[in-house]
Amino acid sequence: MADLRGFEQLNPRITAAFLRERHGPASRQSHLESGRYENTYIARDAIPEIAPLCEAVVGAARTILRREELKLGFWFNAMGPGERTARHNHEEEDELLSCVYYLQTPPGCGDLLVYERGEVIRVQPREGRCVFFPPKLAHEVEQNRSGKQRLSVAFNFGPADA
């Protein structure tokens, strides 16, 4: 876990860009669970506000993986009051590392639960926090018990040559 410097200025810009583009022609949604789409993908060129965040997480991923050449995929997860994210993992293709970055985290918006070797690791979301973990680990997000939206960006990193 690490907190991103300057997130107080960055998060409102990314959040506004997400709201602007989430239903635009450069977006698509996936993973319909319990009546909501868990993932909103927006083309990187349609949301240039995310560039500083992408640079920061790629830099951290290079350090963690000790690998310079990486490809990056990202998507947004907007959880309204009463919603949750189902248990899943990111071991779908050639992912080497996963990450979640928190944009909006009202109190009571739901902890990230990561399952590792029979234990549950509970991570409280905090705006500006990056959490890196192996893509094979199952994880979920508890129900959002706040009265506001919780917003995060998820990342997967894979080999650049794949």
Low-confidence stretches: none
In spatial order, strands of the major sheet run 1-9-6-11-4
Radius of gyration over alpha carbons?
A: 15 Å
CATH topology: Jelly Rolls
Using the coordinates above, name the CATH class: Mainly Beta
> How would a crystallographer describe the biggest sheet?
5 strands, antiparallel
Tell me the CATH architecture.
Sandwich
Q: Helical stretch count?
A: 2
Order of helices and strands: EHEEHEEEEEEEE
Give the topology, please.
Elements: E1 2-3, H1 7-21, E2 27-33, E3 36-42, H2 51-65, E4 70-79, E5 85-88, E6 97-104, E7 112-116, E8 119-123, E9 129-133, E10 138-141, E11 150-159
Antiparallel strand pairs: 1-9, 2-3, 4-11, 5-10, 6-9, 6-11, 7-8, 7-10
Structural account:
The chain is of the alpha+beta class and 162 residues long. The chain has one domain (2-159): Jelly Rolls (Sandwich), CATH 2.60.120.620. Helices cover 19% and strands 41% of the residues. The chain has helices at 7-21, 51-65, and strands at 2-3, 27-33, 36-42, 70-79, 85-88, 97-104, 112-116, 119-123, 129-133, 138-141, 150-159. The chain has a five-stranded antiparallel sheet. A four-stranded antiparallel sheet has the order 5-10-7-8, with no helix packed on it. A two-stranded antiparallel ribbon has the order 2-3. It starts with a strand and ends with a strand.
